[in-house]
Structure formats: C-alpha cells, structure tokens
Specification:
heterodimer; A: about 90 residues; mainly alpha; Helix Hairpins; 3 helices; about 85% helix; about 0% strand; B: about 950 residues; 4 domains; two-stranded antiparallel sheet; two-stranded antiparallel ribbon; 40 helices; elongated
C-alpha cells in the first residue's frame, strides 16, 4: 500500500514541478517567477522526503531540512531585490 | 663534510652574504663601503689560498649538501685546478676592481648599490667555476646574466647603458636558455647531473645520438656569453657600463665564463670533428673579425672590447683544437689576457676620467702629462701585441705554434695564415692604443686638463702591469697553476714547461711577420681608416634592434588577437582547443567496448531532467534580462542539489544548496549596481559561431561522461573507500578525503579562498577610490521602492531561525567526519544564518553586534588548520597526519575525537570569514553610494508601544 501512495504522491509532486517550471519560464511577472521558484523548492523537499521513506534512510531528511532552511533565504533575497533593490541595507 | 669542504662552501657563500654589507655601510662613508666589499672578497681569497696547495698537488676538494635529490639537484661544489685558476682570478681581480672603483666612481654615483651588484656578480661567477652540479651551475650562470645586467645598466640615466644592458641580457640570456636544454640532455644521457660523473662519461656522451644537439646547445650558451661571432656584438655595447665593470666583467670574468665552460666540458665534449670544426672555426673567425674591427674603433673602450672579442676567439680556437698542448696554451693565455686586458681597461678608464673623453682622435701626447698611466698602459699594450719579455708574447707563441700544424678541411695553410693575420691586426691596434693616445705632440684641446690620477686609482692597474712583466720574464712562476688547470681540463698528466725561447720555429717567424706587419699597418692607418669609414659594412645594433622590434610586433600581434579583452574570445580559444584535443585523443586510440548497460529513468527523475534542460535553454534565450536569468539559475541549482542527493552524494547536495544560496545573494548584491538588461553586442555571425562552439563543447563533455559511465574503470575512489576508516578514522569518505587524504590540497584551497575574500575586499576599496566611484554616487537607486524596509515579520522569523541554523551548522560540523557534512558546509550554513540577520535588520544594526572581524576569522582559520598540520610534526609524523581516539563522557554516548576535526574547524572559520567578507565588501557599495543605515532592528518598534496606563501618567 505504502508503495502505491508513494508513487502517487511522487507523481503529483512531479507534475507540480512541471507546472512550476511553466510559470517560471513564462512569467509574466517577476513575482510569479519567485513564487514559482519557492514552490519548486518545497516540491523538491517533498520529493526528497518521499525518496527517503521509499529507501528507508534518514539521510535525505537532512538534505531536505537544509534545503528548507536555506531555500527560503534565496526567496527572501529575490523579494528584497525586487522591493528595495539592495538586499543588505 | 671535510674541513676543506666546509671552507669551499664558505667561499661560495661569502660573496652573497657580503653583498648585504655595502648597501648598509655606504652610510658610514665611501671608503668604509669599499672596505666592507673588500673584506668578504679577501676572506674568500685567503680561504682559497689555504686550499690551493692541495689542489696544486692534484687533489680535488669537494663539498656536498643534498638540496632536491629527487631532481638530481644538490648544492655540491668542487675545486680542481681549473676552478682554482678561475676562482683566484675572480677574487683577485675583484679586490683590485674594488680598490679602483672606490676612486673611479664619482660622488653622485650610488656606491653602495654598485658594490652590492659587484659582490652578487662575484658570487655568481664563483658559483659557476666551483659548481659540481650542472643544474646548480645553470642557476649561477643565469645569475651572472642578471647581475651583469644590473652592473652594465648601473648608470640608469644613460640610454646607452640601459640599451646595452638589455642587449647583453637578451643575448646571453637566450644563450643561457639554449644551454639549459643542452645540459639537461647531457644529464639524461649520463643519468646524473653531477659534473664529476658527466666528465667521466665522455665516451658515452660522444657515442650518443644526442651528442650533436647537446653540443650545439651548450656551445650556443658558451658562444653568447663569450661574445663569439656572430654573437659578439653585445660586448661593445656593454661598454656603456662604468669602466670598473668593463675591466671586471668584460676582460677577466663574465666573458671568460663561456671559455671556462668549454674548458670544463672539454673531457666530455671535445675530441670529435664536430667539436673541432664548430669551436675552432668560430674562434678563428671571431679572432680575425674582432681584431679587424678593433683597429678602426676610435672609442678607447670599444677598441678594447673588440680586442677582447678577438682574444676570446683565440681562446675558443685553442680549446677547439682539442689537443693537450692547445689546452695548456689556452690556460696560459687566460692568465695573460686577464692581466694585460684588465690593466688596459683601467688605463682607458683613467684616461677617460682625467681627459673626459675616450675618443682616440681627440687624444695624443699624453705621455708627458700622465707619465705613470703611460707606463702602465704601454706595458699592458705591448703584452697585448705579443712583444717578447711581456707575458702576452709567450702564450701567443704557443698559440701560433699550435696553429702552425693544424689542418683545416685538408688545408695546412688556412689556420696558420688566418692566425698570423689575427696576430698582425692585434699588434696594429695595440700599437695604435699606445701611439695615438700617449705618443705624438701634446695637444691644447683636451676637454679637461689631464694629469696622473691619485695613487689609489693607478695602484690596481700597476699591480697587473707588474704581473705582466714578472710572468713575461719568469714564466716558470706560472707553471704550477697552469699545469694544475691544464690537467683539470684534459684529465691527462701534463708537465708543460713555459719558457721564452723555443728556438727558431715557424711560430717565431709568424710572430716576426705579425709585429712588422702590424707596425706597417699602423703607419697606413689614416688612409685605411678613411676607406673603412666609407666602406659599407653591417651594423649589429640596427639589426638587433630590428629583430627585437619584429619580435615585439609578433608578440603584440599574438597578444592582440588572443587577449583582446573580450571574455568570449578567451572562452572560444580555450573551448576550441579543449574540444580539439579531446577529439584528437579520441580519434587516436578509439574506445573499448562498453561494459555496462543503461539504467532505467523513473518518471520523477525525467521531470528533473526536463527542468534542467528547459531552464538551461531558457537562460540562453533570456539571459539579456538579468534578473530573470537569476531566477532560472535557481532552478538549475535546485535540480543539481536534488540530483546529487538522488545519486548518493549527500555531501555534495548539502554543499551545493548552501553555495547556491550564497551565490544568488552575491549576484543580487552586485546586480543592484549593474544595468538590469544586457545589451545585444555581438553580430549575428559571431553568435552563430559561439553557439556552434558551445554545442561542440557541451556535446564533447556529455559524450565523455557517457563513455566513462558506460565502462567499469578502476579509479582511485576504491582506494579511498577501503582506507577511509583505517587511515583517516572516519566513515564519511568524502570528508576523510578532504581533511586527510587530500588535506594538503584543502589547506591550499582554504588559503586561496581566504585570499579571494581579501582580494574582493581590496578591489572594492580600489573601486570606491577609482573613476567608477563618481558614477556610483550619481546614480539614483531610490525610485519605486517599497517602504517596508525592515519588515517586522521577517526580522522575527530570522531571529527565531538563527539559533536553529547555528545548531544545524554545529551538528553538521561535528558529525562531518563520519556522516555527510563537515567544516565547509557548516561554514556556509552559519554564514547564511548571519546573512539572514543582515538582510532582515540591516547592515549597521548587525555590524554593531559582530564581535570579530571577518579578516581575523580568515587568518584564524588558516592558522588553526596550519597548526593542526604542524602538530603532526611534533609527533614525528608528516604534515597533517591525523590521529583519532574514542572518548566516553557519561551522559552522552561514546564519541570520536579526531585531529581532523581541528583541521575542519580551520576550514569552517576560513569559509565563514571569506563568505562574509565578500558579502560585506559588496554591500559596502550601497553605503558608499549614499544609502542610509538604520540602527534599530526593524521598522516597527514593539518596545515603543505605550500602555494606556503609561499614557495617562
């Protein structure tokens, strides 16, 4: 059962990634792109966790945690750039 | 090392140590400076004399210290007869020159510099003649080129001096390069770079097929140094040097280095037809041409310079004959030439010093005004002419004797006749030196009223002139050293007898013809001189200048087409070369059959693949919009990190994602001050070209990776995996490689990273001082901005996240040795945690809470890593050997402590410091451009909230 749910979940996140990709490439706004990129980061985190569950190892959780921790920093930086120009004032 | 060996070593080192003195002692006065130069020289000379008796008995003194045994390079010296002769000449004349220069140099000349250069040169020259290792010899050889460059160009204000120094360096330096190649060939033929071994392997060398190339290359070095035709032209131009330099370098020492080398290599290289025809012919031609030009030179020093060229030709010819008697004659003539030529140069210097001219046509009749100088000059010049009872006569007789029975391409007359002509011309210019300068009527139009110089100035040439007569009258006095040197050259056991009268031999007749012919030639000098001046003849300087100009133009052309300042050009050249080399390697040997099959592609992985491709192609299409390209870059970084994780490289995944974040922040910081859109600059054709190159390179790398992954190849990884735990005490092989197996590399890399951080800091400093500063100041960045400068929510989130991030960093750091992680990732994670604070609450607020300078952090990191490495030395282990142990502290589980962790701490600190310094430097621009800073943590101050109660009060 867990196999199927993993496969289904992975399929969903994969599809989500493609949709994110579409949004980043097409835009039209910078804000759209940043948001899509951030979502993409979250989807990748989810996929890593799923992969860890499937392989039965904890190593991927750490990678996922690290991406979660620093991934949002890039998003913040992109946003600050848009809003204020200078990211460290 | 024996007692004698130690002395020899000291002799080699003394001049270099002594070179430090004059530059300092000049403050105590000019005489003190000269004395401080003379002392090391004198000490070395005394030590040499202590060693001399043994060497004259035929012993060889040796000293050896291993330097780089892997390269066959050792600091080994040996002193045999030949070395003793040259070392005595170098040190003895060095002393005389020191004395002479003290009085010759004027008060305006920086005397300390002069003596320092002189001692440097002396040390280099000494090194050549006593080296027992050809690599060491080559080092000293180059040192003489460099130090003579400094000496020739000593009068920096004179363009002739600078040009002459450049020419000398170019000619002797390129000859030196050729010689390096020749010596390396010799070394590989013999299998040793020790001179003693090479000299004993003469038969093997001559039988080798590499003999001729090695011979030609080595001779190129010797011929350029000793100013042999057609490389003779640099010597006269080097006469722009102060006269003491000319007397030292261009009569006694440097130009003899080539002759010395030929004498030194005589047992290894001489004795073949090639040697005879190349060396003897070059020497003969040089002797005649040098003497001919010397006769028509009006500049006293130029006359002496070409005469030196001619005499060097004579020596080369004698060595080229390859007979033992010729070697004896060569050694004897080396001594004689030294005495009379150095004396003549000093005489010329005195004349120049007193009359302020060296033009022979403006001189004459000086014998009454400068009787002492006249006497010294005449003695030396008569010796140069080869008049009996002066030492020049003796060796010239021996030379003519050897020449008289030498066949040249079957002709028994060619060499004797040319040698006689050379001797005749030599007589003519020697007589001219005396008669046109000192004899004749007194003139009224000298540029300066001449009189004899002070004793100190004529003492040195007087000593040499005295030697000229002593050896000329009692040649047996020189027999000991001549025998020792000749035996050292030939390796035979000779017992030559030097005497004045050999009976009526062909050589005597040739001498008589030469002297009479020379005298006649001098009486005809005036008409001949007119003919010489009107005759067209090749001038070396314009030819050399033309050659140099052509080389410069060619270099400039190559530089201009390859370094035009556009990075696309560089990348294109680099990429095309790599692709072509790769293709050449592929087409050379073909490929083995693949041993692996393809793996299946899960759909999610295919999605990742699509993401990479689409993002890459989109960047190519949209890269003109820089911000958009940056967001697309985010996809690529993310996909690569996830790919690393999927392909079992969690360390790389962690590192990649952290690096990605920091990179994006750096790029955003920089982009703020740059145009947001890249203009389209390249023409369409160029873009198509670059596209094709890029596709070829990508295709090449792709197929390379494909080819590798389809085959089972033995790699070094297996070794690393097998030995990670036992050798490095860690189960995370990536980390063990970084801190142990390749710890030295990592150490180098963190230093480079630290330097990069500091350089960015320094560049920013330069930028803000430079022309770009004004533009930065005048640009208005403030339009269309959000007023939410430091939003409350972000500040709170980053503050909360800070301890979490620090703990994660600490965790990753601590477990790095056995699980994914390590100092590098930890440094990046902590850097990101700090950067969040900078972003949220601004630069000034965060900076105020920073207790340690980032520069210090970098230095500390390198220091910690270095000390960890050095710690291994204390235990007698090589640098960076790691040790580990297991510790059990009650509340926690047993854990491992490894020295590698300390090293990792160094890595951590350096990475953190460097990254922070880079971002700090970039963000400084904004403050410079006039941005304000805030000192409060956020826009909205919760502490400023006033309760109703307080408001009522």
């Amino acid at each position: 059962m867990i196999e199927y749910s993993l496969l289904f979940a992975a399929g969903c996140y994969g599809a989500a990634l493609l949709l994110d990709l579409w949004r980043i490439v097409v835009g039209p706004d910078a804000a759209d792109r940043i948001l899509a990129l951030d979502t993409m980061v979250i989807n990748v985190i989810a996929l890593l966790v799923l992969y860890g569950v499937w392989r039965g190892t904890a190593i991927y959780f750490e990678a996922a945690m690290l991406i979660a921790m620093v991934g949002f920093v890039s998003t913040v930086a992109y946003c600050r750039f848009l809003l204020r120009g200078d990211i460290i004032e | 090392m024996s007692h004698e060996g130690t002395l020899l070593f000291l002799i080699a080192v003394l001049p270099f140590v002594g070179a430090l003195l004059p530059g300092l002692m000049i403050r105590a006065g000019r005489t003190v400076c000269a004395v401080s130069t003379a002392v090391p020289t004198l000490l070395a000379l005394i030590m040499l004399l202590v060693l001399a008796p043994a060497v004259l008995r035929g012993e060889v003194v040796q000293a050896n210290i291993d330097w780089l045994p892997q390269l066959g390079l050792s600091a080994s010296f040996f002193l045999d007869g030949l070395g003793l002769l040259f070392a005595a000449m170098i040190l003895g004349v060095g002393l005389l020159i020191t004395l002479y220069a003290r009085f010759y140099l004027s008060g305006d000349d920086p005397m300390g510099q002069f003596y320092t250069y002189l001692l440097l040169f002396q040390g280099a020259m000494l090194g050549i003649v006593i080296s027992d290792n050809i690599l060491l010899l080559l080092i000293f050889w180059e040192l003489t080129s460099l130090s003579s460059f400094l000496l020739i160009g000593y009068w920096k204000h004179l363009p002739e001096g600078r040009q002459g120094a450049r020419m000398a360096l170019a000619v002797t330096g390129s000859g030196g390069l050729a010689m390096i190649a020749g010596m390396l060939i010799l070394g590989s033929v013999v299998g040793s770079y020790n001179l003693t071994d090479i000299l004993q392997a003469g038969d093997a060398i001559r039988a080798s097929e590499w003999y001729l190339p090695a011979l030609i290359l080595i001779l190129l070095g010797a011929f350029t140094k000793s100013a042999q035709f057609p490389f003779h032209f640099w010597l006269p131009h080097a006469m722009a040097a102060p006269t003491p330099v000319s007397a030292y370098l261009h009569s006694a020492t440097m130009v003899k280095a080539g002759v010395f080398l030929m004498a030194r290599m005589w047992p290894a290289l001489a004795g073949t037809d090639a040697w005879f025809y190349i060396v003897a012919t070059t020497g003969l031609i040089t002797m005649v041409i040098g003497a001919l030009i010397a006769l028509f030179k009006d500049d006293l020093k130029a006359l002496l310079a070409f005469s030196t060229v001619s005499h060097l030709g004579l020596l080369t010819m004698l060595l080229g004959f390859g007979t033992e008697a010729a070697a004896v004659a060569a050694v004897f003539h080396i001594i004689n030439h030294l005495t009379f030529k150095a004396a003549l140069f000093m005489t010329a210097g005195i004349v120049d010093h007193e009359t302020h001219t060296r033009d022979i046509k403006r001189l004459g009749g000086l014998r009454h005004l400068m009787p002492v100088t006249f006497l010294i000059g005449t003695v030396a010049a008569l010796s140069m002419a080869g008049i009996p009872l002066f030492n020049g006569f003796l060796s010239k007789e021996m030379m003519l004797e050897e020449a008289s029975h030498t066949d040249w391409f079957g002709s028994p007359y060619a060499v004797p006749i040319l040698a006689t002509i050379g001797a005749l011309l030599s007589v003519a210019y020697s007589f001219r030196f005396v008669s046109h300068v000192f004899l004749g009527p007194k003139r009224e139009d000298y540029p300066n009223a001449p009189h004899d110089p002070p004793f100190g100035m004529w003492a040195a040439p007087a000593i040499l002139a005295f030697l000229v007569i002593v050896i000329g009258v009692a040649p047996f006095l020189a027999e000991g050293i001549v025998t020792a040197a000749a035996n050292a050259i030939t390796g035979a056991d000779l017992h030559p007898h030097l005497k004045i009268w050999h009976g009526v031999t062909p050589a005597l007749w040739m001498s008589i013809v030469a002297v009479l012919g020379g005298a006649v030639l001098l009486t005809l000098h005036r008409p001949l001189d007119r003919a010489w001046i009107s005759a067209p003849r090749p001038e070396a300087k314009p030819m050399f200048d033309g050659l140099v100009a052509a080389l410069v133009a060619a270099s400039r052309w190559i530089t201009d087409i390859s370094h035009n300042g556009a990075i696309s050009r560089y990348l294109a050249i680099f990429t095309i070369t790599s692709v072509l080399l790769g293709f050449a390697a592929y087409s050379g040997s073909g490929l083995a059959m693949p041993t692996r099959g393809l793996l299946g592609v899960p759909p999610v992985i295919a999605v990742g693949w699509i993401m990479l491709i689409v993002a890459t192609v989109s960047i190519v299409v949209m890269h003109h919009y820089r911000f958009r390209a940056l967001t697309l870059l985010g996809i690529i970084g993310l996909s690569i990190s996830a790919g690393f994780a999927y392909l079992s490289a969690p360390d790389l995944a962690l590192t990649q994602i952290s690096v990605e974040t920091v990179t994006i922040m750096l790029l955003l910081l920089a982009l703020h001050f740059l145009p947001k859109v890249t203009p389209k600059e390249s023409a369409i054709g160029l873009r198509i070209r670059d596209g094709i190159i890029a596709l070829a390179a990508g295709g090449g790398v792709g197929s390379l990776a494909y080819a590798f992954m389809m085959r089972d190849i033995e790699t070094i990884s297996d070794y690393h995996i097998d030995n990670s735990y036992e050798g490095g005490g860690g189960t995370n092989v990536v980390n063990v490689i970084l801190v142990d197996f390749r710890g030295y590399d990592t150490y180098g890399e963190i230093i480079v990273l630290g330097i990069a951080g500091l350089v960015i800091y320094a560049l920013m400093h330069a930028l803000l001082d430079g022309p770009a500063a004004k533009r930065l100041k005048n640009t208005d960045y403030s339009q269309d901005r959000s007023r939410d400068r430091h939003p409350l929510m972000m500040v709170v989130v980053t503050r909360v996240l800070m301890p979490i991030a620090l703990v994660v960093g600490l965790y990753i750091f601590l477990r790095g040795h056995n699980q994914p992680g390590g100092g590098f990732v930890a440094g990046l994670v902590v850097a990101i945690a700090l950067l969040m604070q900078y972003m949220a609450s601004g630069f000034a607020w965060t900076q105020e809470r920073k207790k340690i300078e980032y520069h210090t952090m970098i230095g500390l990191g390198v220091l910690v890593a270095g000390l960890t490495g050095i710690g291994a030395w204390l235990l007698g282990q090589p640098f960076l050997t790691s040790a580990y142990t297991y510790v059990h502290l009650p509340p926690i589980e047993e854990f491992e402590l490894a020295t590698a962790m300390l090293f990792d701490l160094g890595v951590f600190l350096t990475v953190l410091g460097a990254v922070m310094l880079m971002l700090y430097s970039l963000s400084r621009i904004a403050r410079f451009a006039g941005e304000t800073v805030n000192v409060t943590p956020m826009d909205y101050d919760p502490g400023g909230y006033v309760t109703d109660e307080e408001a009522e009060r």
